[in-house]
């Protein structure tokens, strides 16, 4: 991509209007010409933070193929800017767009720790693992400023409640003290997403994420401290990172990962248009091939919403990816034990301290 025409530090390279709004905005040529003549920027590329006030924070996951029952998200939108991110669509429900809005307008839920505590204290609640980052990364750059995730981990520790974390940011190591305490009672598991061993690929796919070296170091440090780590190769994109499955699995195992998972890319909702625009600007020589191969994994479409097959795909290319993953698991993770979190302690800590009677 021409560096002069690209939007620096962003995955999406254009704004995308909200599908649910009757009205839309566009940058007119006469306005753009005015900005050029006056030496002004037509739009701001700065990240803005806005506080929102949800009534609840824990979400029941009804999709049967996601692998979690409950999730919570301290932030809406994500500055990491991963171009393939399925969560972009959720920004539209907040009245924003899935393109640059998703990366530049971050919604902050400062009440999340208080809402979580109230939820865990409910008499009717029986402990099940709650996953931080079911939608957007809980350790995205905003966390360094607001520390909402850390405060939520303090709540989980206080009530001895199992928690899972999904992230691609080394910032998680800031909270190693809390993670180690949770690990003592088998209350924590972490999934680190690693999509490539190539920094060039990482920079164009995930412009504001931690570098690959940092992520692998994070896997090792967590593992060395008794915290089980799953490495997610997510998503696998044909002709972009599909050739890296075995090297990625080897690196994950060598750094102490206890398990390995993957998802075949699917470009749901508005993501298809964003991805097509991105790849035609970023990898024009490969664009047609990659889009065709993605479609071949989903019955000729860029997306498949059917549970059970949408994350694994169908067809020859998807089968090759899935077979390689099975080979990788057999080769590098054959002797790894399955991690089960402790759901028994919470009931006796429901009031924040151990009950003797």
UniProtKB/TrEMBL annotation:
Gene3D superfamilies with a match to the protein in the record: 3.80.30.30
Lineage: superkingdom: Bacteria
InterPro entries referenced in this protein's UniProt entry, alphabetically: Elp3/MiaA/NifB-like_rSAM, MJ0683-like, rSAM, rSAM_sf
Short name of one Pfam family: Radical_SAM
Annotated keywords: Iron, Iron-sulfur, Metal-binding
CDD domains: Radical_SAM
SMART domains for this protein: Elp3 (SM00729)
Species annotation: Gaetbulibacter aestuarii
Domain Radical SAM core: 61-302
Name of this protein: PA0069 family radical SAM protein
């Amino acid at each position: 991509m021409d560096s002069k025409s690209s939007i620096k530090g962003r995955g999406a390279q254009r704004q995308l209007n909200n599908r649910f709004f009757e009205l839309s905005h566009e940058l007119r040529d006469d306005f753009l010409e005015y900005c050029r003549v006056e030496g002004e920027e037509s739009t701001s590329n700065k990240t803005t933070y806005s506080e929102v006030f949800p009534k609840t924070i824990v979400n029941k996951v009804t999709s049967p193929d996601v692998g979690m029952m409950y999730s919570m998200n301290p932030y809406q939108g994500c500055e990491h800017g991963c171009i393939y991110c399925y969560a972009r669509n959720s920004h539209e429900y907040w009245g924003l767009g899935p393109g640059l809005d998703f990366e530049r307008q971050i919604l902050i839920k400062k009440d999340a720790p208080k809402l979580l505590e109230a939820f865990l204290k409910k008499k009717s609640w029986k402990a099940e693992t709650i996953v931080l980052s079911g939608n957007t990364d809980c350790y995205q750059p905003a966390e360094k400023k607001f520390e909402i995730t850390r405060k939520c981990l303090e709540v989980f520790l206080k009530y001895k409640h199992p928690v899972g974390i999904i992230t691609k940011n080394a910032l998680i190591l800031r909270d190693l003290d809390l993670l180690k305490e949770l690990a003592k009672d088998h209350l924590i598991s972490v999934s680190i997403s690693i999509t490539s061993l190539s920094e060039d690929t990482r920079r164009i796919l995930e412009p504001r994420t931690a570098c690959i070296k940092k992520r692998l170091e994070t896997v090792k440090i967590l593992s060395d401290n008794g915290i089980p780590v799953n490495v997610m190769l997510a998503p696998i994109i044909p002709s972009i990172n599909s050739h890296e499955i075995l090297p990625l699995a080897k690196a994950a195992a060598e750094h102490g990962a206890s398990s390995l998972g993957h998802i075949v890319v699917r470009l749901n909702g508005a993501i298809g248009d964003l991805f097509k625009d991105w790849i035609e600007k970023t990898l024009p020589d490969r664009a047609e091939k990659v889009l065709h191969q993605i479609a071949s994994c989903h019955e000729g479409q860029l997306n498949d919403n059917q549970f059970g097959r949408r994350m694994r795909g169908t067809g020859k290319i998807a089968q090759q990816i899935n077979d390689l993953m099975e080979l990788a698991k057999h080769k590098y993770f054959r002797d790894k034990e399955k991690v089960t979190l402790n759901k028994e302690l919470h009931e006796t800590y429901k009031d924040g301290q151990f009950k003797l009677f």
